[in-house]
Amino acid sequence: MTAQPEAPHDLVGIGIGPSNLSLAALAHGVPGGLATAFYDQRRDFRWHPGLLIDGATLQVPFLADLVTLADPANPWSFLRYLRHKERLFPFYFAEQFHIQRSEYDAYCRWVAANLPGLHFGHQVDAVRWNTERSLFEVDFTQLDADGEAEALGRTYTRNLALGIGTAPHIPEPLKLLAEAPTVPVIHSGDYLDHRTRILGADHITVVGAGQSGAEVFLDLLRARPAGRERLTWIARTESFAPMEYSKLGLEHFTPDYISYFHALPEAVRDKLVPAQWQLHKGIDAATIAAIHDELYRRTLDGGWPDAVLTPGVTVRTAGRVATTKVELHLEHTQQGTRSRITTDAVVLATGYRERPLSRLLAGLDPYLRKDTAGRPRIDAQHRMSLDPSVTGTIYVQNGERHTHGIGAPDLGLTAWRSARILNTLTGKDPYPLPERTAFTTFGLQTREQPRPRTAGELLPLVEHP
Fold first, then answer.
1. Secondary structure of 130-179 in the HEC alphabet?
2. What are phi and psi of 104, to 5 degrees?
3. Which of 74, 187, 235, 453 could form a disulfide with 168 if both were Cys (CB 3.0 to 4.6 A apart)?
């Protein structure tokens, strides 16, 4: 099916991050074709450009690209990208299972630049349900190179895929400071854009002990002279904790666990997500080791580096001192003690939050079914629960942590989720998916099940009279 100018699309995607880029890539290979269009207000694809620190790697293997775990022979795979760039043999000899972030970004930009049906510089303004045509109506603004409105447009579609991603989270005590231009208080997502200015500060404070905080601290540490580092690293967590990376622990990022989590009661799911922080908010062991090695190296000539690393600390309030410094008021949660530090620059490695869908879907609000916390209900196939009068479907990508758990934003599940969406949308199985993906059985069976026969197990011999 090829979309005509006035013909409705089979699928329109809003947002072009890795999730919807994966969906677009797999949709491109559906037998018989799908009429698709994907919109993003940015001028081109960029994946966390402020955190593409030299040497920083993904926390997932290269197989967690846009398509491979659903379709290893797909033309938009990372290995196809390497072959196109004539880098397949160097990669083979490099023996790198975890690639650099900058290389993953370059791969995604290659896909985005060559895949048809992607419309950058298009800001989606509103979505409505057109009852007369039984289609979703999508209004957008085409933007010029300066981000100014250039033209208005409208398209129609039978199905939507929301992939608007997450936004940097800035804690309330620091919001006003982050908005002021004088003293640099920036989110880690913008780190590289401000790195030169940050390095010029006399004293620098990093807030947050996830992977981003560790990478920023390590980069700053390596760039400061020994004995004059003038660095402070604080975090709410009780320790600078390693990410859970055992093989069975990683099975929490399998389709099996996603299905188990989705079937749990809402109240149980809400308690479970924050308790699993170390599965996705810890620091990888290699980064922790690199930080310790760098700190240790600076003790070889005697003395200790001028760096303070303190976990278990929250920022109660913050304010400006004159026009050149920031004062942070701190509390140690275990000790119950309070203190303050004065610093010249702050990097907030305080994570991301899902972008709210309320503004985008305001025109659909009467049709949306919500849970007790006012969040959209999303079924096991990643579909929003809608009023039966809406015959179209809205799929949600990387916005369903409350229903699908900590695996929702994980790159390792991106291709699987895209394939599942396309299988559901087409009513076929263009991308057959495995029935089982984990050795762990999550939860008890509600009734006794026959024990499955293991590979190589002989059936009992039945003698007939």
1. ECCCCEEEEEEEEECCCCCEEEEEEEEECEEEECCCEEECCCHHHHHHHH
2. -65, -40
3. 187
Q: Nearest Cα to 321, choosing from 299, 305, 343, 349?
A: 343
**Residue 215 to residue 334: CA distance in whole angstroms:** 26
**What pLDDT, in 10s, does the model give residues 193-247?**
999 999 999 999 999 999 999 999 999 999 999 999 999 999 999 999 999 999 9
Q: How many CB atoms lie within 10 A of CB 394?
A: 25
Residues 6 or more apart in contact with residue 234 via CB below 8 angstroms: 205, 206, 207, 310, 311, 313, 315, 330
Q: What percent of the chain has pLDDT over 70?
A: 95
Beta strands in 280-380 (DSSP E): 307-310, 313-321, 325-332, 337-343, 345-348, 352-354
Residue 389 CB contacts under 8 Å (≥ 6 apart), including other chains:
131, 367
State how far the Cα of 77 lies from the Cα of 178, in Å rounded to an integer: 39
Quick one: which of 131, 149, 128, 148 has its CA closest to 139? Answer: 128
Interval 311-334: pLDDT, tens:
999 999 999 998 889 999 999 999
- First vs last C-alpha separation in the chain: 61
Q: Looking at residue 182, what is its pLDDT?
A: 81
Closest CA to 234 of 208, 203, 214, 261: 208
Half-sphere exposure of 122 (CA within 13 A, CB side): 22
In degrees, to the nearest 5, what angle opens at C-alpha 64 toward C-alphas 62 and 67? 115
Q: How confident is the model at residue 451 (pLDDT cuts 50, 70, 90)?
A: low
| Cα 182 to Cα 146: distance, rounded to the nearest angstrom | 25
Is pTM beyond 0.90 here?
A: yes
Is residue 395 within 8 A of residue 382, CB to CB? The reply is: yes
CA distance 53 to 190: 11
Q: Say how many CA atoms lie within 13 Å of 163 toward its Cβ.
A: 26
Mean pLDDT of the chain: 93
- Give SS3 for 451: coil
- The number of residues in the chain equals 465
Which residue, 296, 293, 316, is CA-closest to 304? 296
